[in-house]
Amino acid sequence: MNKQVPAWRAALVALGIFVALMALWEAAATSGGGTAAVDPEYAALVGQAAATGGQTPFPRPSAVALRLWELLRDPFYIRGPNDQGIGIQIGYSLLRVTAGFLLAALVAVPFGFLIGMSPLLNAALNPFIQVLRPVSPLAWMPLALYTIKDSAVSAIFVIFICALWPMLLNTAFGVASVRREWLNVARTLEAGTLKTAWRVILPAAAPTILTGMRISIGIAWLVIVAAEMLVGGTGIGYWVWNQWNNLSLADIVIAILLIGVVGLLLDRALGAVARLVAWQE
Amino acid sequence: MSDLHPYVSVEAVTRAYPGHTVFRDLWFGVNRGEFVCLVGHSGCGKTTVLNILAGLDKPDSGGVIVDGVEINGPSLDRAVIFQGHALMPWMTAEANVAFALSCRHKGWSKPQLREAAREALEKVGLGAAANRKPSMLSGGMKQRVGIARALALAPKMLLMDEPFSALDALTRGALQDEVSRLVQEANQTAFMITHDVDEAILLADRILLMTNGPDSHVAEVVQNTLPRPRDRANLHKLPGYHALRDHILEFLLTRSRELRGNPQPGWDRKALPVVRPAA
After folding, report:
1. Which of A105, A185, B27, B155 could connect to B79 by a Cys-Cys bridge, CB 3.0–4.6 Å?
2. What are the structural domain ranges in chain A?
3. What is the pLDDT tens value at each position of chain B, 279 positions in all?
4. Cβ–Cβ contacts within 10 Å for residue A68, how many?
5. Residue B194, phi then psi, degrees to nearest 5
6. Of B54, B86, B90, the CB nearest to A181
7. E strand or H helix that includes residue B177
8. For the domain with range B8-77+157-275, which CATH number is right: 3.90.870.10, 3.30.460.10, 3.40.50.720, 3.40.50.300?
């Protein structure tokens, strides 16, 4: 039951859903909030805001849009270590993700190759991989902080760890499942190990490897937010936590939106690379 | 070329798995410039024979001697045309041939390789499709690229594993004529596996008939005395064609089963009986 739907019709429905969601949100934000009864002694203790019983209201869509415009108008300002533009914060996160991801690729692709080409290594390393793979990358954080003693590098290490497994497993799988007949062609041509690896196995496994990379970068982008909440200092994750401490909910809504958009772009970028190496029988 | 020292000589080759003998103590030869077909039912071990000749499989005992040297693994001197075309789908037709050539001629420059690859493709009538990837080629065209790739290596021996069995009848016929012509032109020594009787009659100088497996043996050698050049259009009009065809068909239909493990009297594995049904 998967019939082709014209793009404009899908877009129209999407727009309708968007408008409905916004209206719902606007209505919910308007009805909630207001004043609440506050214990006078407590009010005296904490001061003005609490004394009037003023809650921070959940921001309305219009307020969020306004704040988004404000943030995007000047995304790269730096006013001291705790007040930097949203573009700078996302930049830091992207830098960490890229560094961790590239390091992971540098390790995972060659090792995956070895594992994929050697059934012995595959069987020997499989238990380690199976045990380590399901571990939340954040569980490595204390060990990383203890051994590396640098929070920025520790965040990169956590990204490295979480990006490693999908690439490693997919590379190994892709290499191991290269069509027998192509390997036989290489053998009858006396192509040699390096030439076979480079001209036959790598291109044959490239789509599978790229799929692993795509999964890896997705996970890395998920993990970076949490990692930066822990290590602090810079990055979109830290920024989210900071805005929570400031109780600026509009900023958090915006952060969610931007994290989603950047994650989408990362996925699309790797999808474009995957199309370059894709082959069709 | 005397039959005592053929160009390619299979000597005492046995291939067996625990509890399953594919064949044992197999002897036959292929002379220089000769086209030999091995005919038998599926499961008789004919692909194993070809894989051993290619060096992709190793005999448990015995050996294969090509041009005076015992083979030890695959070699550029024994080019294989695979049953599935076995082209690399990420390379163009030209790059597929050039890749093979780059293994043969390590010192050649890229333009040299490209030139030679294009020439090889033109020989099989694919000059115009050189820049297409296999997914953009029909089944027959893909197999043509496979043929060009093998012939471009100028191998001592051409090995073919049912190269046309995956093609439709019309394409198969055209390619059979083409291979017949190319092999004749190059005086190419060739060994082919097939279960298509007409294909064997069209192409082969000698046809080895293999009994059913397991533990199969080559029951006899059919000398194909039909005059060359042959083509499919006139093949069935040649005198002796029907006798030849009937002989092979009868072997496939009944004798291949009856003779399994029960060689005919006087059968000698080192001097296989030769028959000339068409003479």
Report:
1. B155
2. 59-277
3. 444 579 999 999 999 989 899 999 999 999 999 999 999 999 899 999 999 999 999 999 999 999 999 999 999 999 999 988 899 999 999 999 999 999 999 999 999 999 999 999 999 999 999 999 999 999 999 999 999 999 999 999 999 999 999 899 999 999 999 999 999 999 999 999 998 999 999 999 999 999 998 999 999 999 999 998 888 888 999 999 999 999 999 999 999 999 998 999 999 999 999 999 988
4. 17
5. -160, 160
6. B86
7. helix B169-185
8. 3.40.50.300
